[in-house]
Amino acid sequence: MKDAYNSITVRETLPIATRTASANGTGVDRAAGGAMFQDALVIVHTGTITDGTHAVDVQESDDNSSFTSVAASELQGAEPSIVAADDNKMYVVGYKGLKRYLRVAVTASGTTSGGVYGASVVLANPRTAPVVHP
């Protein structure tokens, strides 16, 4: 059961869409399927970014209701600030914290037509396997 299919799962937090305004993703439960995943990566993927700045903020919560920004010391890599030169890129940010829920929030500024992007959370290293996929 040490193969990737049985050891990781991916959950969407911010659906791929054209965005001209700030947005909060949905919370991703690190205890998905009862597995309690010990590791998490946030993946932000872009399409065409026409204008503005889209600052990504990885957030955490104990209750999937009150979210706060993750401290830089609990992240691996940097949260991206997406601009027009960032078409068709992928950004990866590791999470070392202990909170149960994660999401991506984006603060958009200076947008007219905005940009296309989304974010997912990769959950890995479950305490129990195999993983139950949605």
Strand content: over 45%
The profile of the biggest β sheet is:
6 strands, antiparallel
Q: How many strands?
A: 11
Assign the CATH class: Mainly Beta
Q: Domain count, please report it.
A: 1
Structural class: mainly beta
Distance between the ends: 18 Å
Q: Helix fraction?
A: under 10%
The shape is globular
Q: Can you offer a commentary on this structure?
A:
It is built from 1 helix and 11 strands. The chain is 3% helix and 53% strand. The longest helix has 4 residues, at 4-7. It is mainly beta and 134 residues long. It has one domain: Jelly Rolls, CATH 2.60.120.1110. A hairpin with a 6-residue loop joins strand 5 and strand 6. Strands 2, 3, 5, 6, 8 and 10 form a 6-stranded antiparallel beta sheet that branches. The radius of gyration is 15 Å and the shape is globular.
Kindly summarize this structure in a few lines.
The chain is mainly β. The protein contains one helix and eleven strands; from the N terminus they run H-E-E-E-E-E-E-E-E-E-E-E. The strands form two sheets. Strands 2, 3, 5, 6, 8 and 10 form a six-stranded antiparallel β-sheet that branches. Strands 1-11-4-9-7 form a five-stranded antiparallel β-sheet.
